[in-house]
Amino acid sequence: MAADVIGTSELIALMALSATLFLFIHTRDLNSKLKEMEVKLQPDEMVSANQLMTSLEPFQLNNTRKAKQEIVFFNRVPKVGSQTLMELLRRLSIRNEFGFHQDRVQRVETIRLAPEDQAALSALVSSYEPPSVYIKHVCFTNVSEFGLPEPIYINLVRDPIERVISWYYYVRAPWYYVERKLAFPDIPLPDPKWLKKDFEHCVLSGDRECKYLTGEIREGIGDHRRQSMFFCGHHADCLPFNTDGALERAKQAVEQHYAVVGVLEEMNTTLTVLENYIPRFFQGASDVFWNEISRYKPINKNSFKPPVNEEIKDLVRKNFTKEIEFYEFCKQRLHKQYLALKLPEKP
């Protein structure tokens, strides 16, 4: 009987030791995971999420205060949801009583401008009676460099791979050429073989259109393969594809000049930041977007765009490293702006 008691005691002790060891290992792993999460949450300043909430202030992240004229300059990037934001601004212009102006449809849309054309554009933006919005597909143009007051710059970005695929099929969509033909009847129709070329085959075959080579320069009206060019500006350093120089210039423009750069994939956050950082123009934006535009009027959706295999997207990502870095930079900045508002959590 004593032996049985001893055996039972040893078994209990062994079980207790095992439980303690299990709890130790589990707690250690949990702490390790928490540490990993904390590192992922840390922004550039290397502070924790709680510290970020208390240290950031909207004033520090709001370039709207730098504006010297009550004019929003939306130099919209193609295929990032800019048509939808343009429609939102059109409706808000009635609701919030401000002028709405957009560039006319052009035969050849040039996004990179010579210095004299930049000066003319700056003068045009400044000519509208405030409060007003001016919208145009064009690279970032520093209006203040031409002795004119700084406007309020805004824009949107999108996952760069999804965007380049969207652009590829957008310029091949039948309705795109119908619209172009109606506006400019003498424009020749493209080669049917080019229209039928799918993105996956274009990438795998090494077609020049789908080769994304670091340092490559495509002169002319502008390089629509990348969205960072719309932020980099008109400088020669902005021309080479996927380079550090172009990336840093684009980041600098966002940090120094843009009030808000929204993210298509995070529209709730984008609208909240726009409403709080530029209230004169965006008051009621969430209500108009979700209850009027998004529900009843999908804009510019291309039903001719087929799905693209994830393996093909991964191949393209390897050559879009700077574009991806720029996108993540804009996304992090938007998150900082949102966190700085210290809004109460929704129930």
UniProtKB/TrEMBL annotation:
Membrane topology: Single-pass type II membrane protein
Main location: Golgi
SUPFAM superfamilies for the chain: P-loop containing nucleoside triphosphate hydrolases
Alphabetized Pfam families for the sequence: Sulfotransfer_2
Example of a GO cellular component annotation carried by this entry: Golgi membrane
Transmembrane segments: 6-25
Domain of life: Eukaryota
Subcellular location(s) per record: Golgi apparatus membrane
One annotated GO molecular function: sulfotransferase activity
Keywords carried by this UniProt record: Glycoprotein, Golgi apparatus, Membrane, Signal-anchor, Transferase, Transmembrane, Transmembrane helix
Family as reported in the entry's similarity comment: Belongs to the sulfotransferase 3 family.
The protein's name in its UniProt record: Heparan sulfate 2-O-sulfotransferase pipe
Organism annotation: Exocentrus adspersus
